[in-house]
Protein backbone atom coordinates (compact mmCIF):
# COMPACT_ATOMS: atom_id res chain seq x y z
CA UNK A 1 0.00 0.00 0.00
CA UNK A 2 2.81 2.45 0.93
CA UNK A 3 4.66 1.54 -2.25
CA UNK A 4 1.53 2.29 -4.30
CA UNK A 5 1.13 5.67 -2.57
CA UNK A 6 4.76 6.54 -3.33
CA UNK A 7 4.27 5.62 -6.98
CA UNK A 8 1.11 7.71 -7.16
CA UNK A 9 2.86 10.71 -5.59
CA UNK A 10 5.71 10.40 -8.09
CA UNK A 11 3.29 10.03 -11.02
CA UNK A 12 0.96 12.85 -9.93
CA UNK A 13 3.00 15.70 -11.49
CA UNK A 14 3.28 13.69 -14.71
CA UNK A 15 -0.46 12.97 -14.73
CA UNK A 16 -1.26 16.62 -14.13
CA UNK A 17 1.10 17.66 -16.92
CA UNK A 18 -0.48 15.13 -19.27
CA UNK A 19 -3.95 16.44 -18.44
CA UNK A 20 -2.81 20.03 -18.97
CA UNK A 21 -1.21 19.21 -22.33
CA UNK A 22 -4.31 17.39 -23.51
CA UNK A 23 -6.48 20.40 -22.60
CA UNK A 24 -4.10 22.84 -24.30
CA UNK A 25 -3.82 20.77 -27.46
CA UNK A 26 -7.57 20.34 -27.46
CA UNK A 27 -8.05 24.09 -27.19
CA UNK A 28 -5.57 24.73 -29.97
CA UNK A 29 -7.33 22.27 -32.20
CA UNK A 30 -10.68 23.95 -31.51
CA UNK A 31 -9.31 27.45 -31.99
CA UNK A 32 -7.48 26.64 -35.22
CA UNK A 33 -9.11 28.23 -38.24
CA UNK A 34 -8.43 29.61 -41.67
CA UNK A 35 -9.73 32.76 -43.36
CA UNK A 36 -10.25 33.07 -47.11
CA UNK A 37 -11.78 35.72 -49.35
CA UNK A 38 -14.65 34.77 -51.63
CA UNK A 39 -14.34 35.79 -55.27
CA UNK A 40 -17.08 37.68 -57.05
CA UNK A 41 -18.32 35.83 -60.11
CA UNK A 42 -21.48 36.44 -62.17
CA UNK A 43 -23.06 38.53 -59.42
CA UNK A 44 -22.29 36.04 -56.63
CA UNK A 45 -19.52 35.44 -54.11
CA UNK A 46 -17.93 32.04 -54.67
CA UNK A 47 -15.24 29.88 -53.06
CA UNK A 48 -14.15 26.37 -54.04
CA UNK A 49 -11.73 23.95 -52.37
CA UNK A 50 -10.45 20.60 -53.59
CA UNK A 51 -8.99 18.18 -51.03
CA UNK A 52 -7.84 20.98 -48.75
CA UNK A 53 -8.08 22.14 -45.15
CA UNK A 54 -10.76 20.34 -43.12
CA UNK A 55 -10.85 22.63 -40.07
CA UNK A 56 -12.95 25.74 -39.57
CA UNK A 57 -12.87 28.15 -42.50
CA UNK A 58 -14.21 31.73 -42.49
CA UNK A 59 -15.19 32.93 -45.96
CA UNK A 60 -15.01 36.72 -46.18
CA UNK A 61 -17.28 38.85 -48.38
CA UNK A 62 -18.60 42.41 -48.36
CA UNK A 63 -22.02 43.71 -49.39
CA UNK A 64 -22.27 47.32 -50.63
CA UNK A 65 -25.79 48.11 -49.41
CA UNK A 66 -28.91 46.60 -47.83
CA UNK A 67 -30.60 43.71 -49.60
CA UNK A 68 -31.17 39.97 -49.64
CA UNK A 69 -28.49 37.29 -49.35
CA UNK A 70 -29.02 33.72 -50.60
CA UNK A 71 -26.46 31.11 -49.49
CA UNK A 72 -25.96 27.59 -50.82
CA UNK A 73 -23.22 25.07 -51.47
CA UNK A 74 -22.20 21.44 -51.65
CA UNK A 75 -19.74 19.10 -50.03
CA UNK A 76 -18.07 17.18 -52.86
CA UNK A 77 -17.39 13.43 -52.65
CA UNK A 78 -15.83 11.06 -55.18
CA UNK A 79 -19.30 9.64 -55.80
CA UNK A 80 -21.25 12.90 -55.94
CA UNK A 81 -22.37 15.87 -53.87
CA UNK A 82 -23.99 16.30 -50.46
CA UNK A 83 -25.18 18.92 -48.00
CA UNK A 84 -22.92 21.10 -45.84
CA UNK A 85 -23.43 23.30 -42.78
CA UNK A 86 -23.02 27.08 -42.85
CA UNK A 87 -23.11 29.85 -40.22
CA UNK A 88 -23.22 33.57 -41.08
CA UNK A 89 -20.89 35.71 -38.93
CA UNK A 90 -20.35 39.46 -38.60
CA UNK A 91 -17.12 41.38 -39.27
CA UNK A 92 -15.73 40.18 -35.92
CA UNK A 93 -16.52 36.55 -36.79
CA UNK A 94 -19.31 36.39 -34.22
CA UNK A 95 -22.17 34.10 -35.27
CA UNK A 96 -25.32 35.90 -36.39
CA UNK A 97 -27.26 32.75 -37.30
CA UNK A 98 -27.53 29.17 -36.17
CA UNK A 99 -25.58 26.53 -38.08
CA UNK A 100 -27.86 25.46 -40.94
CA UNK A 101 -27.66 22.97 -43.78
CA UNK A 102 -27.47 23.89 -47.48
CA UNK A 103 -27.48 21.71 -50.58
CA UNK A 104 -27.22 23.35 -54.00
CA UNK A 105 -27.79 20.09 -55.85
CA UNK A 106 -30.93 19.51 -53.77
CA UNK A 107 -32.17 23.10 -54.21
CA UNK A 108 -31.65 23.79 -50.51
CA UNK A 109 -30.53 27.38 -49.83
CA UNK A 110 -30.80 29.94 -47.03
CA UNK A 111 -32.18 33.47 -47.36
CA UNK A 112 -31.24 36.40 -45.13
CA UNK A 113 -31.93 40.11 -44.97
CA UNK A 114 -28.60 41.89 -44.73
CA UNK A 115 -27.20 45.39 -44.27
CA UNK A 116 -24.10 47.00 -45.76
CA UNK A 117 -20.91 45.58 -44.27
CA UNK A 118 -18.35 42.77 -44.11
CA UNK A 119 -19.45 39.24 -43.25
CA UNK A 120 -18.08 35.70 -43.03
CA UNK A 121 -19.59 32.33 -43.90
CA UNK A 122 -18.27 29.78 -41.41
CA UNK A 123 -17.89 26.11 -42.35
CA UNK A 124 -15.90 23.16 -41.02
CA UNK A 125 -15.07 19.54 -41.80
CA UNK A 126 -15.13 19.87 -45.58
CA UNK A 127 -12.11 18.72 -47.60
CA UNK A 128 -13.72 19.36 -50.99
CA UNK A 129 -16.64 21.76 -51.42
CA UNK A 130 -18.08 24.75 -53.25
CA UNK A 131 -19.82 27.62 -51.46
CA UNK A 132 -21.75 30.51 -53.02
CA UNK A 133 -23.57 33.60 -51.74
CA UNK A 134 -25.78 35.58 -54.09
CA UNK A 135 -26.67 39.18 -53.20
CA UNK A 136 -29.43 41.41 -54.53
CA UNK A 137 -29.83 45.05 -53.60
CA UNK A 138 -33.14 46.08 -52.05
CA UNK A 139 -34.16 49.45 -50.62
CA UNK A 140 -34.94 49.42 -46.90
CA UNK A 141 -37.71 52.05 -46.66
CA UNK A 142 -38.98 51.44 -43.15
CA UNK A 143 -38.36 54.07 -40.47
CA UNK A 144 -37.01 53.07 -37.06
CA UNK A 145 -39.85 54.71 -35.10
CA UNK A 146 -43.52 55.64 -35.44
CA UNK A 147 -42.74 59.35 -35.18
CA UNK A 148 -40.47 59.11 -38.24
CA UNK A 149 -42.67 56.70 -40.22
CA UNK A 150 -42.06 56.59 -43.97
CA UNK A 151 -45.02 58.11 -45.86
CA UNK A 152 -46.53 55.88 -48.54
CA UNK A 153 -49.36 56.23 -51.03
CA UNK A 154 -51.71 53.57 -52.31
CA UNK A 155 -50.67 51.30 -55.19
CA UNK A 156 -46.99 52.15 -54.70
CA UNK A 157 -44.77 49.12 -54.03
CA UNK A 158 -42.69 49.51 -50.87
CA UNK A 159 -39.72 47.32 -49.90
CA UNK A 160 -38.05 46.60 -46.58
CA UNK A 161 -35.30 44.49 -45.03
CA UNK A 162 -35.33 42.45 -41.80
CA UNK A 163 -31.55 42.06 -41.38
CA UNK A 164 -29.56 39.46 -39.47
CA UNK A 165 -27.68 40.82 -36.47
CA UNK A 166 -30.37 43.38 -35.64
CA UNK A 167 -32.20 43.49 -32.30
CA UNK A 168 -35.41 41.45 -32.40
CA UNK A 169 -37.22 44.45 -30.83
CA UNK A 170 -36.64 46.71 -33.83
CA UNK A 171 -39.39 47.35 -36.36
CA UNK A 172 -40.10 49.18 -39.61
CA UNK A 173 -42.75 51.94 -39.61
CA UNK A 174 -44.82 53.38 -42.46
CA UNK A 175 -47.79 55.76 -42.59
CA UNK A 176 -50.67 56.29 -45.01
CA UNK A 177 -53.68 58.62 -45.07
CA UNK A 178 -57.03 56.88 -45.45
CA UNK A 179 -60.36 58.52 -46.32
CA UNK A 180 -63.61 57.85 -44.45
CA UNK A 181 -65.14 54.39 -44.91
CA UNK A 182 -62.33 53.23 -47.18
CA UNK A 183 -61.38 49.55 -47.04
CA UNK A 184 -57.67 48.80 -46.85
CA UNK A 185 -56.19 45.87 -48.79
CA UNK A 186 -52.47 45.06 -48.53
CA UNK A 187 -50.63 42.91 -51.09
CA UNK A 188 -47.62 41.38 -49.33
CA UNK A 189 -44.71 39.34 -50.68
CA UNK A 190 -42.11 38.09 -48.20
CA UNK A 191 -38.90 36.12 -48.66
CA UNK A 192 -38.12 35.38 -45.04
CA UNK A 193 -36.76 32.72 -42.75
CA UNK A 194 -39.06 32.88 -39.74
CA UNK A 195 -42.35 34.77 -39.50
CA UNK A 196 -42.81 38.55 -39.69
CA UNK A 197 -45.90 40.51 -38.64
CA UNK A 198 -47.75 43.41 -40.28
CA UNK A 199 -49.86 45.51 -37.88
CA UNK A 200 -52.10 48.55 -38.37
CA UNK A 201 -52.50 51.48 -35.94
CA UNK A 202 -54.85 54.44 -36.36
CA UNK A 203 -58.36 55.86 -35.68
CA UNK A 204 -60.04 52.47 -36.26
CA UNK A 205 -57.25 50.51 -34.54
CA UNK A 206 -56.10 52.51 -31.54
CA UNK A 207 -54.45 49.53 -29.86
CA UNK A 208 -53.27 48.01 -33.10
CA UNK A 209 -54.58 45.05 -35.09
CA UNK A 210 -52.75 42.41 -37.08
CA UNK A 211 -52.97 42.53 -40.86
CA UNK A 212 -50.92 39.38 -41.46
CA UNK A 213 -48.32 37.09 -39.93
CA UNK A 214 -46.33 35.23 -42.57
CA UNK A 215 -42.95 33.84 -43.56
CA UNK A 216 -41.88 32.88 -47.06
CA UNK A 217 -45.17 33.58 -48.83
CA UNK A 218 -47.38 36.14 -50.55
CA UNK A 219 -51.03 37.15 -50.60
CA UNK A 220 -53.62 39.90 -50.20
CA UNK A 221 -54.72 40.79 -46.66
CA UNK A 222 -57.24 43.23 -45.16
CA UNK A 223 -58.78 44.43 -41.93
CA UNK A 224 -61.94 42.41 -41.45
CA UNK A 225 -64.90 42.11 -39.12
CA UNK A 226 -64.03 39.70 -36.29
CA UNK A 227 -67.35 37.85 -36.72
CA UNK A 228 -68.01 37.89 -40.47
CA UNK A 229 -64.35 38.24 -41.54
CA UNK A 230 -65.46 40.62 -44.30
CA UNK A 231 -63.46 43.82 -45.02
CA UNK A 232 -64.60 46.83 -43.01
CA UNK A 233 -64.59 50.54 -43.81
CA UNK A 234 -62.10 52.55 -41.75
CA UNK A 235 -62.44 55.94 -40.11
CA UNK A 236 -60.67 58.80 -41.85
CA UNK A 237 -57.19 59.72 -40.66
CA UNK A 238 -53.51 58.79 -40.65
CA UNK A 239 -52.72 55.12 -40.17
CA UNK A 240 -49.41 53.45 -39.33
CA UNK A 241 -48.17 50.09 -40.55
CA UNK A 242 -45.63 48.35 -38.34
CA UNK A 243 -43.52 45.47 -39.71
CA UNK A 244 -41.73 43.44 -37.03
CA UNK A 245 -40.45 39.98 -36.22
CA UNK A 246 -43.06 37.49 -35.03
CA UNK A 247 -40.15 35.10 -34.39
CA UNK A 248 -36.97 36.47 -32.77
CA UNK A 249 -34.67 34.91 -35.36
CA UNK A 250 -36.74 36.02 -38.38
CA UNK A 251 -34.76 37.56 -41.23
CA UNK A 252 -35.34 38.35 -44.88
CA UNK A 253 -36.92 40.93 -47.16
CA UNK A 254 -40.47 41.96 -47.97
CA UNK A 255 -42.50 44.16 -50.28
CA UNK A 256 -46.07 45.39 -50.00
CA UNK A 257 -48.63 47.62 -51.69
CA UNK A 258 -51.69 49.26 -50.13
CA UNK A 259 -54.98 49.57 -52.06
CA UNK A 260 -58.02 51.54 -50.89
CA UNK A 261 -61.53 50.67 -52.08
From TrEMBL:
Alphabetical keyword list: Signal
Protein name in the entry: Uncharacterized protein
Protein's organism: Jingyaoa shaoxingensis
Domain of life, source organism: Bacteria
Leader peptide range in chain numbering: 1-31
Amino acid sequence: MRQEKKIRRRLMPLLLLTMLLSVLFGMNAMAASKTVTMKKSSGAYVYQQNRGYTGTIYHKFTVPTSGVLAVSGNKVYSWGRGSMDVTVCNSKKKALTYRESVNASGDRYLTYGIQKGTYYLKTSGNASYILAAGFQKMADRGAASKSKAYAISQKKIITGVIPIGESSNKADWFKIKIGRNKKLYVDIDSKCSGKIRFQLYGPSARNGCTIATLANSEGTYYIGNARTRKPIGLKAGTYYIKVSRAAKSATGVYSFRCKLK
